[in-house]
Amino acid sequence: MRQLALSVLLFVLWAPSAFAGLCKAGNIESRHNREAENLELENFATAVSPLDGTSDYIGSRTYNAHVLACNRKRDTMGNEIEKGISVDHVFEANLAPRLIKGHYNYFGNIVTQQRYMYRLERTNGNWIVTIPAEFHFPELKLTKFLDITMPLAERLGIAATICATTVKSGGKTTRGLVPKSVSNGVWTDDTCRVGRGESFTANGQTKDIKDWYMDFWKELIQGYWSRPGFELRFQIINRDEVASEDLAAYKKEDVIWHVRLNMNANVAPRYKSNPLFLHPIYSGIDQSGVVHEFGHVLGLDDEYPSTECAPLGGTDYIMCGAFTLGGDNQKAVYPWIVTRRYVAGKAL
To answer: How many CA within 13 A on the CB side of residue 325?
Structure first.
């Protein structure tokens, strides 16, 4: 019976269902085309990336309409949003904080639906999105170690030393280089294994590796998703960055992203845990993976398959299967989707 239940769960989680076509072009309505045009006037659409000076946040109007229709169709709040505001609705420049919660379905069934949650407000025309996050470091195996990306290793000054060679004990890598897997197709970059209790000094600062690790995530997420008109605040609960009264509200409403990490480089990342993957994100996940998976926390669905989204103009969209990491690849259609949900939010 247990094996049968597991088989059913695997089928539901992985098998494409009759609803897997929720993102078809046939779902694009005139409303979505008009919204795709209207979003181009937003500050977050005309901005210049603070990271690299690129400025193509608008992308493709046609593809933006496709993304809008796709996300609204899969979003449990989609109908409420479209009934609650008109196509040409203009939000006030100052809006009190609201908690935004909902689910989206890629396959169209309850079991595979993914939850999104964040705090949304607006000040002087600038949208502010806050995500409280709590990191849960690997607990199932290799609990004394932590795999980090090479960019973080370079920042800590250990890429050419500790991370240049592999140290093994009992057939397991205990320190240094963890070469990329050439067979699984999941990870494309080497990682580096260090002791989880180690401290490193960089730029005159000495911190525990876990603090360096969390800071690196925060920098990536805020750096790539923020721009004029759209500010992302990634608050780390482990570091006491959340005010006590806010934390109480977030816990009550379950508006916390639990970042559950593993030490298995052969597992594809999933931002949300499930019965089969309690810790679904490899600690050595590359930078583009971090930025992409965070999009799911904002309630943005994958635009798969890449063979379809790329020809439509979505190659440089961070949520496309063929995404690349770039300063302006977090296209304006994403903040547009995220902020329209204000109408369906709950007062904080």
So the answer is: 14
For the segment 325-345, what is each residue's pLDDT rounded down to a tens digit? 888 999 999 999 999 999 999
3-state secondary structure of 298: coil
Is 113 within the bounds of a domain? yes
- What does the alpha-carbon distance between residue 93 and residue 170 come to, in Å, rounded to a whole number? 61
Long-range contacts of 112-117 (CB under 8 A, 24+ apart): 112/12, 112/13, 113/76, 114/271, 114/272, 114/296, 114/301, 115/272, 116/296, 116/297, 116/298, 116/299, 116/300, 117/253, 117/254, 117/255, 117/256, 117/257, 117/297
Structurally, how many domains does the chain consist of? 1
Residue 324 has pLDDT above 50, yes or no: yes
- Of the listed ranges 94-98, 170-174, 236-240, the one predicted with least confidence: 170-174
Q: Is residue 189 assigned to a domain?
A: no
Whether residue 95 is contained in a domain is answered as: yes
**Which residue range(s) make up the domain with 82?**
25-136+211-347
| DSSP calls for 139-189 | -SS-TTEEEEEHHHHHHTT-TTTGGGSEEEETTEEEEEEEPPPSSSSS--S
pLDDT, average across residues 237-257: 96
What is residue 9's predicted lDDT score, i.e. its pLDDT? 43
